[in-house]
Structures are given as C-alpha cells and as structure tokens.
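Exercise 3.2. Students should predict the tertiary structure of the chain below and write it as structure tokens, then compare their answer with the key that follows.

Predict this chain's 3D structure.
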Amino acid sequence: MNDDDLNELIDAFTAETQEFLQSMETHLLAMEGADLKGRQAAVKEMFRGAHSIKGAGSMLGFQNVSGAAHTLEDCFVILRDRTDLSALEPTTVTVLLQGVDILKKIALEAIQHSDVSTPDQTANLQAIAQIHAQFEAKYGKPEPPPIPAASQSAAPETLKLIFEHQLPPVFNRLETELSQASEADLAKSVTALNQVYYQLSGLAGMLQLPDFGKVAEPLRDLIDSPDLTLQRLQSEGWAIAQNLQTARQQILDGRAIELPQISPAPAENASELEVSKTSETPHSPNPQLSQTPTLNPVPNPQRPTIRVDLERLTELVNLVGELVINRTNLELQESELRGEVKRIRRSIVDLNQFGGQLREEYDRLSFADWKEGNGNSGLVGKIAAAETEFPLLANVKSSIAHEHFDILEMDRYTEFHSTAAEVIETAEAISQSATKLDTLAMKFERSTDQLRRITEQLRSRVMQLRVVSFSRAVDHLPRALRDMCLTYDKDVNLLLVGRDTKIDESLLDALRDPLIHLVRNAFDHGIEMPEVRQAIGKPASGQIEIEARHQGGQTIITIADDGKGIDPEIIRRKIVKKGLATEEQAQEFSITELYDFLFWPGFSTVEEVSDLSGRGVGLDVVRTNLRTVRGTVKVDSRLGKGTSFIIKLPLLLSITEALMVKTDRNKIAVPLDAVEEILHIKASEVHTAGNQPMLWWRDEFIRLVRMQDLLEYSVVAPDGPSPDPLTQDYIPVLVLASSEGMLAVAVERLIGQQEIVVKPLPPPLSKPRGVLGSTILGDGKVVTILDVDDLVGQPLSNSSIAPMSGKMPQMAPTSSQSPQILVVDDSYTIRQLLSLMLTRARYRVVQAKDGVDALEKLQNGLDCSLAIVDIEMPRMDGFELLRSMRSTQRFAKIPVAMLTSRSGEKHRKMAMELGANQYFTKPYSESQLLEAIPNLIKH
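Answer key:
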C-alpha cells in the first residue's frame, strides 16, 4: 500500500470517527428525554459506534484509539447490562459525554502524531480508564461473555488477541487482492488468494475452530474453479470476505459462529452438478459440501470513489449556471420563431385571398363582356380593347384567329390572369415552406423542453456533490448548551428547525463559530434566570430556536430567543462612554445603526467580564467570519420579548422562479417564493394613515409603498418623469412576505414569471441594501434581483406619496472619534470601492488621486491613522510618496499599506525596505483587508 492509499484510508477513518463520535453525543443527549425503549436503542447504537472505532483504529495501527474506544465500549456494556435505564441519572450521561470528549482528543492526537504516545495522550488514556473504573465501582463489572463451544480448546484471552490483532492484516490482504484484481493478472491474484486461504485454514486448525474453517472453505473452492472469471472472483470473493468478517466479530463477541447459508450453484454449472450427483457414493453423506458453494449475494462494501478538487466543482457549478442562461436564450428564440411562423401563416392567408380575388375579378369581367356583346362583332371589339390594356399571351393570340370558336368554347387569357395565377402558386409554395417551418419549430420546442429537463437533472446532481445537511453545522450545539445549563444553573431548550436544509459544504467552517457565539450570546445576554422569568410571567425554561431555510436564492438562518431583548438606550450610553460618538450624535442614531455597534471589535453592553461574555469578541467574530463567505447578519429585538439574529448566505448556485415586474422604467426580478399574493386594486381601495398609504388585506392593514421608493440605487433618468403606480386607475400590487412581516408593493406593470439564475455581486463590490444580486435574461439584458427580507424590514422615513425624487436618508455621519484613512489611487473606481467599504466599517475616509495630491493633503494638516497607497500613479508614484512620508518627521509614524496589482517579489521587497507596514495585491479580499486595518492602526 503506497502513501496516497494510506492517506486516503486515514482521511476516511477520520471522517468516520467524527461521525460516530457525534452520533454518540447526540444519542447521549437524547437519552435524557427518551423512554426506556428509546434509551435501550440509543445504548445499542453507541456500543456499535465505539466498537466500529475500535476495529477501524486497530486495522490502521492506531492502538491508542482502539484501546480507548474499547474502554468506552465496556462502559456502554455496563450501561446496558448493569444499570436501570428507566431511572437514568444525569451524572451518568455527563460522565459518558466526558468519555466521548476524551476519545475525540485521543483520536485527534493519534492522527496528528501517528499514534506516538505523548504526555497529553497518556493523560487522556488515564482519564478514560478512570471513567471506566468509576463505572465498575458504581455499577459492578460486566459479566464475561460466554466462550463458544468451538473455541474451548483455546484460552479466551489468547483467542481474542489473535482475532483482534493478527486477523485484520490477513483480511486486508484479501480485500486488497479482490479490489485490485484484473483480467491480465488474474493468475497472480489467484495465487495470492490461495496463500490467504492457507493462512486462514491453518489458523482455524491451530485454534481448533472447524466452523471458522468452513466459512473459509468456499474461498478454496472458488479459486480452484476451472472457469473462474474476474466478475465471479470479485462478486463471490466479497461475499466470502464479508462472511469471514462476520465470523471474526462473532468470536470477539463471545458468540458461536453461524455458518452462512449456501444457495444452489448457478445454472451455467448445471452439467457439472449433474456429474457430481451421479458420481455420489454411500461414503459421501453430504455431497453438497464438496460442490462449489455460491453464497447469498452481498453488496460490494467498497464503492469506487475519486477525489475532486473543490475549485473544479465550483467551475462545474458555474458552467451549469451558464448552461441555464443559454437555455433560456434558446427558449426565447424558440418563442420568437413560433411567433414569426404564425405571422407568415397569416400573411399567406391574406395573399391567397388576394390571388383569389384577382382571378374572380378577371372571370367576372370576361363574363360581363360576353353577356353585353350579343354577338361576335361587339365582343371582338371589347376583347380588342381588353387586349390593348392587358395584351393576350402569344399562344392564345393564335387561337383567336379561329373564328369558328366562340368565346365560351375557348378561354382567353391575358397577362393579368397569368399574374394572378402566379401569385396564388407562390402563396402555395410559401405555405408549404411555412408548414415545414412550423414542423421545425415544434421539433425545436420539444428539444428545448428535453434540454430543460436534462439541465434540471444536471443541476440537481451537481449540487448534490457540494451540499450537506444543515445538521452538520448545529449538531454540536445541544451538547454545548447542556454544559452551559449545568454550569450556570439555567434551564434552556434548543429547538432546531430545518436540519435537513441543504447548504454548501464550504460554508460549514464559516458557520460553526458564528453559531456557537450567537447561542452563547442568547444564553448569557438574552435568557433570564429561572426565578426572574417566573416573576415576570414567563416559563422558567427558556428557549433558543435555530431555523434554516431557503428563500430567493439565499440560505437564511435565524437564531431567536425568548429572553429579555436588547435595550437600545444601554447601547447609546455605551457608545458615548467609549467615545465613539457625542451624546447628540448618539441620540440621532436609528435602532438599526445602534444594533450595528454590537458588531464592532471590543464593543460589549456587559459591565463585568465573565467566561461567557464581556470581552467584546463574540459578535465581531460573527460578522468577520460571515464576510469571508459573502454573508450578512442583522439584529431584530423587542424589549422583554426576545432577540433574533438573521444570517443570510448566498447559495453556490441558485436557479429559482422569479416574477418580472417593471418599475421606474426598469425591469426588476422578485423571487416568487417571497410573493404571497398578486393583486390588481382600484385606486379607491387605497387607504391612508397620516401620509402612509395602507391596504386592507386579509382582515388587516398593511403598508403600501412604491417599489422605487424602497430601492437605494439610481439609474440614468429618462427625459420624462417616472410613472407613479399609485396614480393609476388599476394598480398592480405584490404582497411580499418575509421573516420581517408583510408589505404591499405597487409596481408599474407585471411582465410575467421566469426561471432565473441568481448571480451574487462579485467582490470587491458590497451587497447593496435590498438587492440580492442580478441575473441575465435570454436577450442578454442584466436585471436586478430584489432581497425581499431587506425591503420588508426597511423603515421608510419618507412617505410613499412624497415626491419620488426623494431617496432614503443617508446613514448618520460617523463619529469624529473614528479613525481616518487616506486612500491614494489614480483609479476613481478603486477609490470609490475602498471608500464605500471603509465607510460601511465606520471609518472616515479621505481620497487622493496620486502621490502629489496625498502629500499636499498631509502638509495642509490632514490627520490620518492609516494610508492605503497604490504604486503606479502619475506625477508621484507610491514608492516616492512612501519615501517622502518616511523622511518627514510629521508623517514618519503614519502606517502605510500598499495596495497594488504588482504581485512580484521585487515590488514587495522594495516597498518593505522603504517602510511599508503591509502589502496587499489586487484584486483584494475585503474581509482580509478589514481584518488587517485595526492591527495596522495600532501599529
């Protein structure tokens, strides 16, 4: 086995061990609230998990892990056989949870240090042994398992050691030969399997285990088969290997070996069986045992797998999104084609009618001329006149010379009649082509429909490669909450909703710390002590609820508690006390802006520092971690009722249904799962409360606003004023629903429903309020997708019937105490992006377009805490500016961070030699830059 194979096995062992340990923890926590039957089932599952870890650790040489798992397994045996599970003590669960924690540490230590005994490892092994000793002292030792009759000749301990430590390498070789066998090397595989068989049969004879020898006997019969194929070797070989593993486990459990049932041989060997039966003699009491047995089919325990780089999966997901966009384009073209075919058909009908009218008109004129002529002389005169206007065809002129033919006896044709006929024939030809076009359009439609189904299946399969259940991110929380309840004498229940919601696996690491911090925050800051809750009429037991769901191309995770809520006035006083704003400025802050201070580094509303809170790092970690995955978090709290933290994460690939609407002369996509109802109301149905329009909907009044008043971005305005939907006789209204409540939104026009690919805004662009992302329509146009949660929860200071030029009020100016940062870059776009990011992070920003401009601002008295400088700029580049600052005593101590597209070592080295404090390259990581700035300012 090479190093790569061994590393893959160790990775698989690590993942499997973590799953078993998490399962044990989950079952132990569930036992406290389960009935007797549920507790017995939980003990059985935990025993199986510990036993599996023990076996896998032994096979890979992790003897410390195997020994610790065996010790924990014995504890579960005592729990199963020696305790009254109907009266389970909480202390017993606590001790076993400690044992699971110790086994986690032992497994992690063993994998990191290749099972070398370290002082920590020795201490952990002693600790788990003490737990086992406590169990034995309290409940008594478990009864030794009965030794099977077939094994009486071997000492139980010797037998156990042999089957625990000497058999796994033999089984490993058997399984390796079966998995690596090929048609070309089939003979070599048979030779190797023959050696395995002699090892097994020799061991069975030495230990006097005839039943174990019978389980191995089919292997000999298989490899001796004259018509052995690779398929048969692997299918029957895996069945034999599984039966051998089962027999080994039965010996280790102290049970007698149960021989596997033998099924009839395959039909293709029927002739051989006939010969065997006819050659039976009275000395063969059991001839069936001499035949090649075919064991009951057992599924192959090893499924072929490959390891794929996460980046390649991401590229595959992006390509699926592009495929959906191009499919939408095809559907649009197919619709246009069908429309053109219908238009052509209508034109052909008109053309046919015109041609028919021409023919009828000519025949009518000809008949009228004959009727009025009353003889050839008059008729000939009129025909002559007609010939002057419409000359006769050449072949017809010759026929007129025959005077003995009457006009009724022979038709006369002019170019007029011939032209009409040609028009009709041309129309028929076009009609046939239109029929073919119609057929092609129908085939195109069927192909597009089939492409839609295939694309949907492909998207589903690709997404399954990267998504896991939300439970993976929260399964550790019940244990953490239980420990906090025991430590701090609180009674808090944890309710997990949407555990099966699928999230991208890459989000797990970014979610774990925020979730544990928010749960700790809710436990400490939110949930009151039991006596306080009872005094104010609440149940003594508090509740924390974590819910995960998908909406409009996002994963929304809500962490809510029923505690005391957040007092905004406490935040105001804390802001003033820390010098972050004056008292007058603090009074102007809105509730949303006050809550935003909770995520500032070092900010805490708690006066005393404890193990749980007061250090001001919890919520800062939440926002920082979420920024790395383009996530956001916001707070909603009601004093005395509780607090909710709402986390929004973009989906890796979201294909969703959206309602396309027109507002302010622009197309907008509204996620359909957020639309509760679509209404067309009369202007008379609009009520007002003060200056706020209201709509009576389902027995309650809800706010009615124009969509353009909710959006905080602007586009190039047309010449005329934007239409006001509230002034129309019939108003299209969308009733939007979110976790924030209900909101009625008036739009200019409804366009229709469409499947869209949600594309989040890429870094370094930040997510605007109310905008989820964008999508590309089939005609190539980019359309904004609304974030309904943001819109519904957004307060409106301006009335919906105010002039539409008024926009949302800007955030209150930041405090003069906030650090000021000088941004120096010749690119206007980069300066604006950096300024937007830094302003949102509560820094004050001053911009300079090059080194000369920056130096002038500094010489004019600009006080800045940090300078972020580009290298390549006109007039004075970043190196020259850095050299000037370091050579000037006034500016020498200002920290300077270089931000440039030059990533070479030569540029980096020169910048550091000139005195730069940090070196960043474009495109920059917003989270990395924001994380580094506080350290640079303190420099």
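Discussion points: The chain has a mean pLDDT of 76. The longest helix spans residues 310-373.
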